[in-house]
Amino acid sequence: MSSQTGRPLWMDGHMAPVPDEIDAVDLEVDGTLPAELSGRYFRNGPNPAPGEETGHWFSGHGMVHGLRLRDGRAEWYRNRWVRTTHFTGGADLVGPDLGLDRAAVTANTHVIPFNDKIYALVEVGFPYELTPELGTVGPCDFGGRLTSGMTAHPKQDPRTGELLFFGYGFFPPYLTYHRLSADGELVESREVDVPGGTMMHDFAVTENHVVWLDLPLVFDADLAVQGVMPYRWDDGYGARLGVMPRDPDRAGEVRWFDIDPCYVFHVGNAHEDAAGRVVLDCVRYAPADFAKVWATIGGLPAAEAVNAAAVQGMARLHRWTIDPSGGKVLGEALDDRGTEFPTHNDGRTGLSHRYLYTVTGDSIIKHDLRTGSSATHSPGQGLIPGEAVFVPAADARGEDEGWLMSVVTDAAGRGSELLVLDASDLSRTAAVRLPRRVPAGFHGSWIPDA
Ligand SMILES: [Fe+2]
Hints:
Structural class: mainly beta
Number of domains: 1
Family: Belongs to the carotenoid oxygenase family.
Enzyme class: oxidoreductase
Distance between the termini: 45 Å
Cofactor: Fe(2+)
CATH topology: Neuraminidase
Protein name: Dioxygenase
Shape: globular
Largest sheet: 6 strands, antiparallel
Radius of gyration: 21 Å
CATH architecture: 6 Propeller
CATH class: Mainly Beta
Number of strands: 33
Helix content: under 10%
Bound molecules: fe (ii) ion
CATH superfamily: TolB, C-terminal domain
EC number: 1.13.11.-
């Protein structure tokens, strides 16, 4: 699918890449930035270099946009490409002999703080360490111990400080679970048996379990040879959720539960309820919605049936409740609006949560899962919000005491701002005017000053 200009959707309008790296200081603030918001907001996304045309939205070089806030001021903005070997020297992830160079990646999906370091992530390869000023340190394989890629959606256990993640492969082992200790040592790697290679973008954790989403977006070597995004939908693969004990001594006890075929890019959060059931909240694409979004972001024609008005090409908030002992899984829709990029208070990761935050094409939504109600903030006509990152208030008692940060970009390409909302009621706290348009991208993090 292409835009009215004939360019791919992700090369045009509010998604179009920017051509260069800039710096700006003393940014204009509308409203009052809370003084305790001292730190950095970094956000990653694909940004092909000038003259490059990528065949898929996911394929552009990672560019991180960074904003430095301190004592109520917005001190600086800058944007930098992640200087991977793919960016600087044209190295390729897959060599002619099908060998993998896991440093030759885009590093374009997420940027996270962990153990006093900052990492840019993309799921097929190694993380890239960045400096707090957005310089690139280099690829990280945790002392040679990481032998797979690293998902862009690791989960930090708020109780232990450990970072749990996984890597998936085109070839066996298709799935490997990893655990980093709180001080950054890769202390566990565990192969997990799945039927094939799929694009597994996210997963979930609870206090005692890891939850896998083994879904029918399968690796296709023929597509890989053609040099295009090597994944396609396969009805024959089926779809299943896997519940795996985190306890290494129970590594073999993975239980799988068949579900209706669907796709999930993003998990909101998961927890165990009082009955020991695993409750997983995510945004789920029905097959036709997935077909539409996959065609859209890959520049492919969508089938006529997929273009039907009822097919939005969006995901919807969904809950699975899995009873590991009884062997049952219950699926239920939590909201009928098309949403993406679910976030939560990271202090609740793997634990029970009351609130999730999502974005639509024009709004930020706060979902109260206890009451079933929701609140909405619309930044304005033609303004498109990105992922809303929850930042807890100092001394917060309530789960929703804090702020949401979202880069909002004008659909007509006229500019961007960092919007700061009060997460308790979605009222507008402040907005920082950015010196340039920030293309719609993927994920970001608030990195508080130590
Ligand atoms: Fe993601």
